[in-house]
């Protein structure tokens, strides 16, 4: 608005009307800085993929390589240590897709139940779930390890998968979403038509909660994809590693083999690809789901 | 539509879960015994592959773990405590006494390893034989040597210095004639290298001969090392900075950093960091103080963790790693770590020269073999060197470059170490 006014005489008044930090140009500048801050590491990573190991150390991080080594680098990445990187991608996908799918189903079911059913101590139980949101994930990893060790489950796929199958924050989102998206009348109608509660949930409730479920799924998917501490503590079998844990292990061995530096850079770039691929098609729906959950 | 997506995802997840049950399947046949080996040392995987190819009765399953000080050692500690120890692990010399006192590794004397004692340098055997028991088989050692740019030394009319005095004199001349070139980049955070230098000078940072732990990093030998480098740094004769980081690599490439206090394993690292400098390096003995001596700067052992499920088979594998020319040949393409076993020195020279052209013309094998037995045998390590090295790195990062910085760092480190050990209940004399 101040931009539209004649600069000479209107300036003092416009300045009085809106503080400088509220003006649009300031906002744009702040957003640009934030965008730069967020994107700079990614740009560095993209340039890094094109480089050889000596170039990673001796050339400017934001300039491309003298040659083009992307394909060679990626081939080396998938060849290193008998091609274990491909295995790590597969593992991470299994943990993320499996864990997020189960977590989503459980969250949606629980949120729906909290919203639609009136049972004794409902709000107390709900408070317990919400308290779960407040406990940091890292705080429960070591107790989980000790419990897993007691049942001889450490260093198995399940030791990483089972703990990520529950997500209290997802229950919270699902409850909020259910109360906005699932009209009680519709459920009444389904019941009158003779559907049992389970059938009502799966045919009516779950369908209406689709966008909310997607939000929860993506949240949990990203959380598991980036989860580092849990697998680090639980797993030692290289064939069960996640990408993050595998790259960490390589990175710690650069003193022994400096070439791991290059592979870690390339591996980090490759690891972001599945997330980007997942987000581009789904971001619109995700935003919708977030907004609807948030209004309520 | 969304339900279909979700249903499809759930279905996909379910099938992945089912498929993954097959992934962790432990197809444990009944013929060969499978043992698990934890290591991060370069060349281990290649050695394991060779062992498996040449042995039918034992199959080694190699697990790459984070390097010891980056979490590998705590992983071992936790695994032993949780009763899930692997069969055999890599432990570096500095960590071994700590693992012995904490009951993480067990004695291996009963597997008849003492007959091998004569094959290793005296100091090496004393690093693994602690309190009357042998606790590990030495795999590789790292006698300190001096890597120098032979091409530039010739161009500038320098000779590989035999003593530290000559090293300083040449650095002075270099500084005068070529002010933009530095004799070396002195590492600001490399506790292992500093320990090696003090070791060479005849220091004994830790000593248990009195029955108590004694910590001494302010003795005459260490002070001599500290004062020497402090004065070189103060006079601008050497650059200070993190080694094998951006600035250092750039300086190496540009010929602005002429020497490296290093060990045989450094050759493999250089071949990756600065491949273009192939053929420009020479290797000379580490400059001496009074008598020809060297320090040790790395190396690793094969140790048997407490609770190792197959100790016999694990020891057979460890013995093979420590004594077989085949193991040396397998690791040569990726690693230039020098074998602890002196009988393997010739095999090592042949294998490395054949597999790694970068080392051609360096004279690395002869210099390393001559340096290995000159390392003083009395050096001992403290009960927690993971913590100790990381604190020494912190001290030197703060102090190197300040007047008397290295001397201050050693003094502060000694105080902190004594304090730390006392708090943990060790009997320590200052």
TrEMBL record, chain A:
Matching InterPro entries: MetI-like (IPR000515), MetI-like_sf (IPR035906)
Transmembrane segments: 29-47, 88-113, 125-146, 198-225, 260-280
PROSITE patterns the record matches: ABC_TM1
Compartment(s): Cell membrane
GO cellular component labels: plasma membrane
Source domain of life: Bacteria
Membrane topology: Multi-pass membrane protein
Protein family according to the UniProt entry: Belongs to the binding-protein-dependent transport system permease family.
Name the UniProt record assigns to this protein: Carbohydrate ABC transporter permease
Pfam families with a match to the protein in the record: BPD_transp_1
CDD domains assigned: TM_PBP2 (cd06261)
Domain ABC transmembrane type-1 as annotated: residue spans: 89-281
An annotated GO BP: transmembrane transport
Keywords, sorted A to Z: Cell membrane, Membrane, Transmembrane, Transmembrane helix, Transport
Automatic annotation (TrEMBL), chain B:
Transmembrane segments: none
Keywords of the record: Cell membrane, Lipoprotein, Membrane, Palmitate, Signal
PROSITE patterns, per database record: PROKAR_LIPOPROTEIN
Signal peptide: 1-19
InterPro entries in the record: Bact_solute-bd_prot1, SBP
Keyword Membrane: yes
Record carries keyword Signal: yes
Name of this chain's protein: Sugar ABC transporter substrate-binding protein
